[in-house]
Amino acid sequence: MPPGRMIMLTLPVKKKWFDMILSGEKKEEYREIKPYYETRFRNAWKGSLIGGNAHRQIIFRNGYSKNSPSFTAKCTLSVGQGKEEWGAEPGKEYFILTVQEIRKR
C-alpha cells in the first residue's frame, strides 16, 4: 500500500441496523472483540486502536455483494458495553464504532 493511503473498512450490516444507522436512529455499530476485528481495526487506525478522537471512514454495506446498498460514515472506535436496543448483549464488551457523520450514500 502506498504511504499515506488510508485503509477503508467495509463492514456488512443487517438491514434493520443498516436502516437505523442511515436514519440517524442508531449511533453505534458493534463488533465482537476477536482477533479478526482487532487486526482489521488496528490496520485501519494505523496501530492506535483505541483512544482519542481519531476517526476513519467506514463503509457499511447491507449484505455481502458489491451491489448491495451501502453508505460511508465517519466513525470513532472504542471498547465498551453496547446498548441492547441496538443489538448488544447485556454485560458483554464490544468494539464500538460510533457514527459521527454519514458522508456518502
Give a short synopsis of this structure.
The chain is α+β, with helices and mostly antiparallel strands.
Question: What is the fold's blueprint, element by element?
Answer:
Blueprint: E1 9-12, H1 15-23, E2 28-32, H2 35-44, E3 55-61, E4 70-81, E5 93-104
Polypeptide structure, described:
This protein is an alpha+beta fold and 105 residues long. The protein has a single domain, classed as Hypothetical protein (Archaeosine Trna-guanine Transglycosylase, Chain: A, domain 4, Roll), CATH 2.30.130.30. The chain has two helices and five strands; from the N terminus they run βαβαβββ. The protein has helices spanning 15-23, 35-44, and strands at residues 9-12, 28-32, 55-61, 70-81, 93-104. The chain has a five-stranded mixed β-sheet. The chain is globular, with a radius of gyration of 13 Å. The two termini are 26 Å apart. The mean pLDDT is 87.
Structural class: alpha+beta
- List the helices and strands in order: EHEHEEE
Average pLDDT number: 87
Distance between the termini: 26 Å
Count of extended strands = 5
Number of helices: 2
What sort of overall outline do the alpha carbons produce when their principal axes are compared? globular
Name of the level-1 CATH class: Mainly Beta
Q: What would the CATH topology be?
A: Archaeosine Trna-guanine Transglycosylase, Chain: A, domain 4
Quote the beta fraction: 35-45%
- What's the architecture in CATH terms? Roll
Total domain units? 1
Strand order, biggest sheet?
Answer: 1-3-4-5-2
Rg over CA atoms, rounded to whole Å, is: 13 Å
The CATH H-level homologous superfamily: Hypothetical protein
Roughly how much helix do the residues carry, as a percent range?
A: 10-25%
Unreliable runs:
none
